[in-house]
Specification:
With 128 residues, this protein is an alpha+beta fold. Helix content is 20%, strand content 43%. The protein has two helices and seven strands; from the N terminus they run E-E-E-E-H-E-H-E-E. A hairpin with a 4-residue loop joins strand 1 and strand 2. The protein is globular and about 40 Å long.
């Protein structure tokens, strides 16, 4: 079951979309995603997309979360969606590249020259 908690955060110029996937036999959260949408609603940013355990990977949960994020973004008139890749993701770049490209995203890793940034790459997709 996917639950969406959509809220406007008055402290930031954005809408936050919190999505949680619960197991069908338990109320445990097995995956979640966070999406922020700027007030101008031109672009959304995937803040996080996580499947809690490897035993729940490759079951379509991440794809369902991503499609729901895109759907919420489209409903708000967003034209593009993006996300950053960090060092936390470095052991999974190949898997992430396959996943996002499968869903129509471009996947770009930085050239490695800018070590000051915690962001090592980016995903992007035009929604319109």
């Amino acid at each position: 079951m996917v639950e969406a908690d959509i809220q406007s955060d008055s402290g930031f110029p954005r809408t936050l979309v919190n999505l949680f996937v619960k197991g069908h036999k338990t109320d445990s959260i097995i995956g979640y995603g966070f999406l922020s949408i700027g007030r101008m609603a031109r672009e959304a940013k995937i803040e996080d997309l996580v499947i809690e355990s490897e035993r729940f990977e490759n079951r379509g949960i991440g794809s369902a979360l991503l499609k729901l994020m895109e759907s919420v973004a489209r409903e708000r008139g967003v034209m593009g969606i993006m996300g950053d890749l960090s060092d936390v993701d470095k052991d999974h770049y190949e898997k992430l590249s396959y996943f996002y490209k499968k869903h129509g995203y471009s996947f770009t890793l930085n050239d490695g020259q800018s070590t000051a940034s915690i962001f090592k790459g980016q995903i992007t997709k035009q929604l319109r």
